[in-house]
Design a protein that fits this description.
transmembrane helix, mainly alpha, Rhopdopsin 7-helix transmembrane proteins, elongated
Length: 214
């Protein structure tokens, strides 16, 4: 028979292993990049930023959420319960917003790579991408602060923001697919023409040679 404690225990039991996985997995990613500087590229800087936000989820959000629910369930200090609740909402909203922007930026990065070709490395640099990854924390912090203190305020920003990100990803990946498909068809056409030319040249050489020897 379920009692009042059962949902809380299930919730904590689910969050704890995911917390450990988030910390260990993303730490390994960050350490691998730190030990291999040659891997650092504009695209990988975005991946580093994404790994950092996921690491913060495991280090901050999930432990704070578990602590919040513990104090709330056992009806401990109401002031601390309120503080933990606001801190959890702020951190989760902040990291969620930063993650959404970085994931969408990965789509933009891939689109620029296939669209700009050789100009990509001139325009998209490691320094610029690193500056962008640092900058996105500021507007996300401002929006998350509203949501931490007033219920419903964050949703006013997050709902249209998520919709725009999803639409942007869909449009960019559609364009990337068309560009890659066009390049693939061009390569196939060139290979076909080259194979046809080689076959035609070979037949022009072997047929007269066969007639002369016959």
């Amino acid at each position: 028979m379920f009692n009042d404690t059962t949902p809380f225990v299930i919730n904590a039991a689910i969050n704890f292993p995911f917390c450990v996985l988030a910390i260990v997995g993303n730490l390994l990613i960050l350490v691998s990049f730190a030990r291999t500087p040659s891997l650092v590229s504009p695209s990988n800087v975005l991946l580093i930023g994404l790994a950092l936000t996921d690491l913060c989820v495991g280090l901050i959000v999930q432990p704070a959420y578990i602590a919040w629910k513990i104090h709330q369930h056992f009806q401990l200090d109401p002031t601390l319960v309120g503080f933990l609740g606001r801190a959890t909402r702020f951190a989760s909203s902040l990291l969620c917003g930063v993650s959404y922007i970085i994931v969408s930026s990965l789509s933009v990065d891939r689109f620029l790579a296939v669209h700009l070709h050789l100009r990509y490395h001139e325009i998209v640099t490691v320094r610029r991408v690193a500056f962008f990854c640092a900058f996105v924390w500021f507007p996300c912090s401002a929006a998350s602060s509203l949501g931490a203190w007033k219920y419903g305020y964050f949703e006013l920003f997050s709902a249209p923001f998520v919709g725009i990100c999803l639409l942007l990803n869909a449009v960019l990946y559609s364009k990337i697919y068309r560009v890659v498909r066009r390049h693939q068809l061009q390569v196939w056409n060139q290979l076909f023409k080259k194979s046809y030319l080689m076959l035609f040249t070979d037949s022009n050489v072997t047929v007269p040679l066969g007639l002369s020897t016959g």
